[in-house]
Structures are given as structure tokens and as C-alpha cells.
């Protein structure tokens, strides 16, 4: 496609699945109730759920209305870990079609399994938000997400195919090559993390290419928190329309919700997910429109359904109808976490993982500080470690290999590349009580 | 025969070198020689001082991490090939040098080099066997005063 015959931005929003996305509320809620009851039945034989249900004296009979979901117990990341790797499977192993994974707090990934039907629904859900954000069957989309255990790459890949558009599975990294591919193949769409979109713009400028001249007109970004300011910056830099979407691997991956052309919150795919917004302390629902922790039940997942999964993500829910005609409830951007999880270049990292890595290197704890910043477009992590007689040597090679060793351990445990800064004794602030281990200098609140 | 060298960890930013030197100067401890190894991020200051135990105590009281290492001071002829001859001896004896630096004063036709060996005791033995002069602490201090 040449510059001259390029389509204008923000094409009118079309709806991929009008039946599901514009279903009258009463009908939608009846469908949710039916699916919730069937879910309780489907998981009743899984030891984890069976014990949970027995303990709370719950059965299908307990679910008479959607409000009864509150009688069901929560599922946490810890429960997944305790049933590592596939203890929460609700179908025979032979029925699995794929297994993905997410980073865990202890260095080993938590696995999530899919049946063929799960994968089909997943593609459908991705297709819905892609189309809501302007993707058309005649488009070509470059996917610059990682293809692997991470759900982003494969999830979006099959969603794009479902829409009937062409996929370029460029995968993550090698920014110059991304730009070459883009200039050779003229994709209209780009899928990546929002910060990587800015990296592409920077890299193009470094190559003497005006980022606005790149063929991309449409971006679907996710995998890390971002702000409206960042959206404006991306749209300005690349001359595109940027859309937000939300998902998490424990539930399915991308596809839980996504923006429509109104870009006023992300439409939750309510025929597949029952989403609650709770006060993380009291676990009671917050007043409508107030921020709270999202708790998600995957109504239709077969292989590894989640009942009231505590996402730890903080967002707001809106029920008022949207100008796009969809009847589904919307959620705001994720504005925070109820735990200390950090998202570094799309990778979930817990400070406890950094600590675990440091514990593997003698003498490096207890005084350290994790500093997260976004000096350009990408997140950077500096782990400051106070020097200690036990790890200090007069030999430079020893000191350098110490830094490398710490960095390697962090990569092994947390999956990120961190800069290790050795600092002088007593230079890290001391706290009475719980130490402050993280200094997040990024400004990703709206 | 061996000398005690103090090593300090310094962050590589303005003013960091001055602080420990001022601390020992305030106690009237003379620095015989020093060397600094650095990366963009941090440095290792190595000091040979008149009273290393006192200097170490002062620095540690000030919160510095101080490491004590045995190093060997060797006289070499201050003329072309002087150092090469000494290094040949070390190489032939398969002695590994971790690092080395020059002593700031020369005596007559001799220059003094400070060596950090992995095995300083064997290094001293080899050097003496080969007829080189290993400079002891007392001698080094008296030669500077």
C-alpha cells in the first residue's frame, strides 16, 4: 500500500461477533449464570476445587444467581504454585492441545493448559478486540511479541488469522530487522508492548527514517501497564491509532478485554469471563466505578478453568452502555497492583525473585535496592548491592565477575537483564521495620 | 619481606577518592604509594601506607570496606629491559601476577615495583633465589623519609 491510497485512521468500529458483543444484558447474565453452574460442575472432580467446595459446602445447587459467585472460594497464584505443574487440570491430559506459561515468583513458570476448544475461543476473543480496534481482513499485521511460553505472541497470532488478516510473526527483538520487515511488507498493524512501539520509533529515527512514514496505522498494545500520555506519544511518533487490551496467562492470555473505537475503557468479554472488582482488604465489592482488585472467573475454559482468580491488578469497572453499541461491561486501564509485582519490558518480576537471586551469591544481602526506570522508551533495572567485606576483593577481575554472577542469577530466576551496581557500604537507605526494596521511577499511572 | 596493602571500594563519582585519603591524612598517616583500578561504575583504591593497621582501623571506623593483601616490592634496574628481566624470572617460575604498579620513588639506578601475586610467599622465594632484591616494609619506609 502506498502513502497515497492509505486508509484514514480510526475506521468505523465493526463488531466481530454481534450476537455475543451486543447481547441484551438480561440474556447475557442468564448465559453467564448457566455457564457458571456448568463450570462448578465441570471442576467438581478436580481435587483442589473438590476440597475447596467440600470445605465451603458448595455445589451446583449453591449457584442460584450470579451474586452467588461470592459463595465460591478464591483461587490465587499460590494455589497454582501448590498444584504445580498441572494439578488444576480439569480434563484428561490427553485432551490438551497446548501449554503456555507465565513467570512465577520462585523462578519456575506456572503453566496454563488449553484444549483445542480453549484455543479456538482464545482466537475468537483476540479477534473481537482486534476488530473492535479497527483490524480488517485485508490488513497485514506484524507481531513483535515473543513467541514462546508467553501467551502474547501465539494468542494474537491466531486471533489475527481468525479475522482473516495476514500475520508476520516477526517475534520480539532485533528492532532494525523489525523496521526492515515493516518497510518491505507494508503491514498496517503492529502488535507489541507499548514501550517497544516507542523503541521502534526511536530506532527508525536513528536510521534516518521518519517514524511517521512507516506503514503502520494501527497498533494493539499490551503486556505491560501504560498511560494515556504514552498513548498520545505513540500515536504522535508513529502516526497511528493505538489500542489497549488486557489479559493474563492464568485466565487465558490476551483477550479478556480490549478497547473499541470509543477508547473509553476495555470491553470485557463477559460471555466468557465473570469479572468482579473487590476491595483487596475486605474482599467485598467496591462501589461501581471505584478502583478495586479484579477477580476473574473463566466461565468457558475447559483445560484449566479459574474460579475467582485474584489477579492482583487494580482497575475500575463501568456498566453504562458504550457509544459503540456493545453491551458488555468495560474496565479501566490497570492502574496498580495489590502486590509488589513489577512488569519489566512485559516480564512479570517480583522483588522476592531478585532477593532469591542475591541469596544465591554469598554476601550480597541484606542491603540491596531495585531501581526501575524508563530512561528512553524501555524499562531498565538497576540492582544496587552494597559492598561487604565478604564479597570485596582487591582484584578487579573478581569484582567484575561478581557483578556478572549476580546478573546471571537474576536472569535465571527472574528472566530479566539487570544492571548490577555495586555501591559503597551504608549508601542504601536503612528502614526500621519492612525495608523498601523497590524504587520505581517510571510514571505509568494515568 | 612482604608488604601489607590496603584496598578500598569506591563508587566512581566525583569526590569519592578524596574522602578516605583525607581520613588517613587527618591521622598523620603518610601514603607511600597508591594505585587505582576503575571501571565506569566503581574503583578499587590500593594503598601502601606507613602504619597500615592504624590506617585500616581509621578507614573501617569511617565505614569503608577495607581489604588487606600481601604484596611484594621488588627492585629492578631502572633502564631498558630492567622490568622485562624481572618478569622473565616470574614467568619461568610460572608465577601468576594478579596486577602490578610502580612505586612512586626511585632509588639510585633502581626502580621499585609492587606486585600482587596469587602466591606471594613462593614469589618472594623465587625472586630471592634469582638474586633480585625484595624491598621490605622497614626499608621502604626509611627510603622515603
From TrEMBL, chain B:
- Matching Pfam families: ACT_8
Sequence ranges assigned to domain ACT in this UniProt record: 71-145
Which InterPro entries does the entry mention? Answer: ACT-like_dom_sf (IPR045865), ACT_dom (IPR002912), ACT_dom_pair (IPR045739)
Q: Which domain of life is it from?
A: Bacteria
What name does the UniProt record give this protein?
Answer: Amino acid-binding ACT
Amino acid at each position: 500500500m502506498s502513502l497515497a491510497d492509505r486508509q484514514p485512521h480510526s475506521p468505523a468500529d465493526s463488531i466481530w461477533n454481534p450476537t455475543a458483543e451486543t447481547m441484551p444484558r438480561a440474556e447475557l447474565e442468564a448465559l453467564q449464570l448457566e455457564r457458571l453452574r456448568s463450570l462448578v460442575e465441570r471442576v467438581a472432580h478436580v481435587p483442589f476445587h473438590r476440597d475447596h467446595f467440600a470445605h465451603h459446602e458448595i455445589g451446583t445447587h449453591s449457584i442460584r444467581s450470579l451474586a452467588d459467585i461470592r459463595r465460591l472460594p478464591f483461587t490465587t497464584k499460590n494455589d497454582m504454585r501448590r498444584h504445580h505443574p498441572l494439578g488444576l487440570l480439569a480434563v484428561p491430559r490427553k485432551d490438551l492441545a497446548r501449554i503456555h506459561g507465565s513467570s512465577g515468583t520462585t523462578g519456575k513458570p506456572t503453566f496454563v493448559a488449553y484444549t483445542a476448544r480453549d484455543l479456538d475461543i482464545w482466537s475468537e476473543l483476540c479477534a473481537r478486540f482486534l476488530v473492535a480496534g479497527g483490524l480488517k481482513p485485508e490488513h497485514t499485521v506484524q507481531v513483535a511479541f515473543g513467541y514462546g511460553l508467553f501467551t502474547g505472541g501465539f494468542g494474537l497470532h491466531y486471533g489475527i488469522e481468525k479475522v482473516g488478516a495476514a500475520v508476520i510473526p516477526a517475534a520480539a527483538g532485533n528492532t532494525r530487522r523489525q523496521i526492515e520487515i515493516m518497510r518491505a511488507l507494508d503491514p498496517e498493524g503492529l502488535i507489541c508492548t507499548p514501550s517497544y512501539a516507542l523503541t521502534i520509533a526511536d530506532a527508525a529515527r536513528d536510521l534516518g527514517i521518519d517514524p511517521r512514514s512507516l506503514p503502520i496505522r494501527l497498533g494493539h498494545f499490551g503486556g505491560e501497564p501504560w498511560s494515556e500520555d504514552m498513548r498520545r506519544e505513540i500515536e504522535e511518533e508513529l502516526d497511528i491509532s493505538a489500542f489497549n487490551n488486557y489479559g493474563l496467562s492464568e485466565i487465558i492470555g490476551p483477550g479478556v478485554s480490549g478497547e473499541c473505537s470509543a477508547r473509553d475503557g476495555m470491553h470485557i468479554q463477559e460471555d466468557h469471563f465473570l469479572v468482579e472488582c473487590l476491595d483487596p482488604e475486605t474482599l467485598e465489592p467496591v462501589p461501581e466505578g471505584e478502583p478495586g482488585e479484579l477477580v476473574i472467573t473463566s466461565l468457558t475454559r475447559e483445560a484449566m478453568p479459574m474460579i475467582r482468580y485474584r489477579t492482583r491488578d487494580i482497575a475500575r469497572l463501568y456498566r453504562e452502555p458504550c457509544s459503540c453499541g456493545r453491551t458488555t461491561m468495560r474496565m479501566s486501564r490497570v492502574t496498580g497492583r495489590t502486590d509488589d509485582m513489577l512488569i519489566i519490558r512485559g516480564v512479570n518480576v517480583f522483588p522476592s525473585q531478585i532477593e532469591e537471586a542475591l541469596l544465591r551469591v554469598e554476601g550480597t544481602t541484606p542491603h540491596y535496592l531495585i531501581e526501575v526506570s524508563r530512561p528512553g522508551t524501555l524499562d531498565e533495572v538497576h540492582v544496587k548491592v552494597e559492598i561487604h567485606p565478604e564479597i570485596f576483593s582487591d582484584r578487579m577481575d573478581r569484582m567484575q565477575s561478581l557483578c556478572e554472577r549476580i546478573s546471571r542469577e537474576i536472569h535465571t530466576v527472574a528472566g530479566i537483564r539487570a544492571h548490577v551496581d555495586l555501591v559503597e557500604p551504608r549508601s542504601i537507605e536503612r528502614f526500621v521495620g519492612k525495608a523498601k526494596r523497590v524504587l520505581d521511577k517510571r510514571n505509568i499511572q494515568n | 619481606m612482604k608488604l601489607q596493602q590496603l584496598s578500598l571500594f569506591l563508587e566512581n563519582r566525583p569526590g569519592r577518592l578524596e574522602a578516605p585519603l583525607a581520613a588517613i591524612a587527618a591521622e598523620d598517616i603518610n601514603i607511600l604509594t597508591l594505585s587505582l583500578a576503575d571501571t565506569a561504575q566503581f574503583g578499587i583504591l590500593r594503598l601502601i601506607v606507613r602504619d597500615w593497621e592504624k590506617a585500616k582501623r581509621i578507614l573501617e571506623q569511617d565505614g569503608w570496606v577495607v581489604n588487606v593483601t600481601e604484596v611484594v616490592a621488588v627492585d629492578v634496574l631502572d633502564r631498558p629491559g630492567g622490568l622485562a628481566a624481572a618478569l622473565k624470572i616470574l614467568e619461568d617460575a610460572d608465577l601468576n601476577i594478579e596486577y602490578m604498579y610502580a612505586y612512586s620513588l626511585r632509588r639510585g639506578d633502581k626502580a621499585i615495583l609492587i606486585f600482587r601475586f596469587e602466591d606471594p610467599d613462593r614469589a618472594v622465594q623465587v625472586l630471592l633465589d634469582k638474586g633480585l632484591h625484595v624491598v621490605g616494609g622497614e626499608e621502604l619506609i626509611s627510603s622515603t623519609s
